[in-house]
Design goal:
The chain is α/β, with parallel strands linked by helices. The protein has 21 helices and ten strands. It folds into three domains: 318 residues, Up-down Bundle (ABC transporter transmembrane region fold), CATH 1.20.1560.10; 226 residues, 3-Layer(aba) Sandwich (Rossmann fold), CATH 3.40.50; 35 residues. Helix 17 links the parallel strand 7 and strand 8. The N terminus and C terminus are likely disordered. Pfam families: ABC_membrane (PF00664), ABC_tran (PF00005). InterPro entries: AAA+_ATPase, ABC1_TM_dom, ABC1_TM_sf, ABC_transporter-like_ATP-bd, ABC_transporter-like_CS, P-loop_NTPase, Type_1_exporter.
Length: 622
């Protein structure tokens, strides 16, 4: 997703001023770097003045035929210029010394803040944003801002001051020469204004397209098995090439815009030099200035040549940094709708009673004419009870499981834990009491131990207690295969656990939920990737674990329903029946239809009975 910045109405200065909180801790050293750079520039501006004295002295010495004095003047002048050059070099070194460390600290602080922000923003935010867009902001944009702060910002300020000071000094030799140099700069300011308007738009477009391209690469890498299996590698390449070509065209447009500003920055100084040379010669003949003054004027103009030419590069650099800042603040200005309450309630000894009271939910992109996906859920799970949740595809089962841990917030009604609205609990406490295991098991590039104990921040990962918890969780999930991995429990799992089978990933994810030792366990079909024998072993172990834990289990298999004390039937966004499996078979035709569908799916998966059988209804008729 490409996100258009609403910050474009801000001036460039106002947009970049938003970086002040990140820069403030390093402000002193950055000022030191700027002063060092300014000192280097002032030293460079002194050279033409020294040269003027040398040239004038040589003229006077030549008129007096004082050869020894002329040699002494040249040697002394050369030593003076050498001393100034050494002083300038020292100031340049100081500038880099001042800014290097604080610039990296600013970069670190911005990355840490952005990462923390991404962690705190709700799942709804991540549903809307492509991961490549977030990654490009985290890496490219922040790195660009750091380079601009440490290099571009300081040089832009110093070079503008240098041009100002140097232009004033040009008037020192003759006002007409200074006026010529000043007037030829007017087209530069006009072209700079036009450049800012065009380049700012192109810079934003380029950086957004780079984020889209990063998303394509990430999706292709993560989906490489699918692309290979369906032979769609060339199709993915064509799609990538189109995006890359679009980005290339935008970069070429940026290059043309920069080329135009460079044209004026190179052309106008040449005009200024030519006009000043003709005027200077005429002034010499008229007695307005002497040769030494004209020589010094052109030496000063030469010193100013680099600051003038660098303005184009530094200006485009500033606009790139402004665009990168806009892209960062696209995220910073996102409102975190799921946060801790101002006056949180604490549950010292939670019992595990989970209740949905008139709970409504609709996704943010749902049409206004659509009914709520969850349209008034009323359901109570008693402490220690295991509740199976069943329903047809699309009925909202998975969505319902995201509400207890506040991955999403209800849009109406409430969810309570032991009678307390979960929105009145701190998120850290809530998620300590309620743990989840998803059907699509996600693991991290970390060791088996770290993955399974992810929810136990209270434990030292290598303590005896952690070993006990880890071993019990692995036993429940029948994840003993972890001991046979190359480095056992310390084996680092590949990215997203793709080096493991689907069943292995699912078992480790289940072990992670069990290890969290919550009062409420929410399981979204956690056994779907297991074979029949392993599933039976896991279910047997789960019965022991769930004896003292409240559990809500989304059931996509008849065997999962068998784990439950009661079953809740979800139909068109509402709970239409609650009871034991046998009770619902007798009283609910829709429940029998759902169970028949589950049995048919299970039959198709295992091949144990003919597909499409209707055993539930046969059992009821019998």
């Amino acid at each position: 997703m490409s996100v258009t910045s609403s910050s474009s109405s801000l001036s460039t200065f106002a947009a970049l001023w938003r970086l002040k909180p990140f820069i403030r801790p390093a402000f002193g050293r950055l000022v030191g770097g700027a002063l060092s750079a300014l000192a280097a520039a002032v030293i460079a501006l002194m050279v033409p003045i020294v040269l003027e004295q040398i040239v004038r002295g040589l003229g006077e010495a030549a008129g007096a035929r004082a050869d020894v004095g002329a040699v002494a003047l040249v040697v002394g002048g050369a030593l003076g210029v050498l001393a100034l050059a050494l002083g300038e070099a020292v100031m340049v070194w100081l500038r880099r010394w001042f800014v290097l460390t604080p610039a990296t600290e600013i970069e670190f602080g911005m990355r840490a803040e952005l990462y923390s922000r991404l962690q705190s923003l709700p799942v709804a935010f991540h549903d809307r944003w492509q991961s490549g867009q977030l990654l490009s902001r985290m890496m490219q944009d922040i790195s660009l801002i750091r380079r601009w702060i440490s290099f571009g910002l300081i040089l832009l300020i110093v070079n503008i001051l240098t041009i100002g000071i140097g232009t004033v000094l040009l008037f020192r030799w003759h006002w007409l020469l200074g006026a010529i140099f000043l007037l030829t700069g007017i087209p530069l300011w006009i072209s700079g204004y036009v450049f800012e308007k065009r380049y700012g738009t192109l810079a934003r477009r380029s950086q957004d397209q780079a984020g889209d391209l990063a998303t394509s690469v990430e999706e292709s890498v993560h989906g490489i098995r699918v692309l290979k299996a369906f032979g769609r590698g060339k199709h993915a390449l064509r799609s990538f090439s189109r995006q890359a070509e679009t980005l290339r065209e935008t970069e070429l447009s940026k290059a043309r815009a920069v080329g135009m500003i460079w044209f004026w920055l190179d052309f106008m100084p040449q005009i200024a030099f030519g006009a000043s040379l003709i005027t200077g010669i005429l002034l010499i003949f008229a007695g307005g200035i002497d040769v030494a003054e004209l020589f010094a004027f052109f030496a000063m103009a030469t010193v100013l040549r680099w600051p003038i030419e660098s303005i184009g590069f530094l200006f485009s650099f500033m606009l790139d940094a402004r665009t990168a800042t806009d892209r960062l603040f696209d995220i910073y200005r996102e409102v975190n709708t799921i946060s801790d309450p101002e006056k949180p309630v604490h549950l010292s000894e939670p019992r595990g009673e989970l209740a949905f009271e008139g709970a409504h939910f609709r996704y943010q992109d749902a049409g206004s004419a659509e009914r709520d996906l969850l349209d008034g859920i009323d359901l109570v799970l008693r402490p220690g009870e295991t509740m199976a949740l069943v329903g047809l595809t699309g009925s909202g089962k998975t969505t319902l499981t995201t509400l207890p841990a506040r991955l999403y917030d209800v849009t109406g009604g409430c969810v309570t834990l032991d009678g307390v609205d979960i929105r009145d609990l701190e998120l850290s406490e809530l998620r300590r009491h309620i743990a989840m295991a998803f059907e699509d098991a996600t693991l991290f590039s970390a060791s088996v131990r770290e993955n399974v104990l992810l929810g136990r921040a209270d434990l030292d990962l290598h303590s005896p207690e952690a070993d006990r918890v880890l071993r019990e969780a692995l036993d429940v999930a029948q994840a003993g295969f972890a001991d046979t991995l190359p480095e056992g429990l310390e084996t680092v799992i590949g990215e997203e656990g793709l080096s493991l089978s689907g069943g292995q990933r699912q078992r480790l994810a289940l072990a992670r939920a069990v290890a969290a030792a919550p009062r409420v366990l929410v399981l979204d079909d956690p056994l779907s990737a297991l074979d029949v024998d392993t599933e039976a072993l896991v279910e047997k172990a789960l019965r022991r674990v769930l004896a003292e834990t409240t559990a809500l289990i989304v059931a996509h298999r008849p065997s999962t329903v068998a784990l439950a004390d009661r079953v809740a039937l979800l139909e068109k966004g509402r709970i239409t029946a609650v009871g034991t499996h046998s009770e619902l078979l007798r009283t609910s035709a829709h429940y029998r239809h759902v169970i028949s569908s589950l049995e048919a799916d299970e039959a198709a998966r295992t091949g144990t009975i003919p597909d499409g059988s209707d055993t539930a209804e046969k059992e009821v008729r019998a």
